[in-house]
Amino acid sequence: MAVQCWEDLLKSSKKTALVHDGKRKIHYLFEDGKEMAEEYDFTTDDLLVRKWRSKNPLGAPGEWQIEIGEPFAALASLDSEMIKENFSNPVFLRQDTKTTFQWRIRNLPYPKEVFSVSVEPSERCCVVKTSNKKYYKKFGIPDLDRCQLPLDCSALTFTHANNTLIISYNKPKEILTLEHELLRELKKLKGTGEGDVDCKTQ
Amino acid sequence: MAAQMSTTKVPEVRDITRIERIGAHSHIRGLGLDDALEPRQVSQGMVGQLASRRAAGVILEMIKDGHIAGRAVLIAGQPGTGKTAIAMGIAQALGTDTPFTAMAGSEIFSLEMSKTEALSQAFRKAMGVRIKEETEIIEGEVVEIQIDRPATGTGAKVGKLTLKTTEMETIYDLGNKMIESLSKEKVQAGDVITIDKATGKISKLGRSFTRARDYDAMGAQTQFVQCPEGELQKRKEVVHTVSLHEIDVINSRTQGFLALFSGDTGEIKSEVREQINAKVSEWREEGKAEIIPGVLFIDEVHMLDMECFSFLNRALETDLSPVLIMATNRGITRIRGTNYQSPHGIPIDLLDRLLIIATSPYTEKETRQILKIRCEEEDVEMSEEAHTVLTRIGMETSLRYAIQLISTAGLVCRKRRGTEVQVEDIKRVYSLFLDEARSSQYMKEYQDSFLFNETQAPQMDTS
Question: Nearest chain A Cα to B256, which residue?
Answer without folding.
Answer: A201
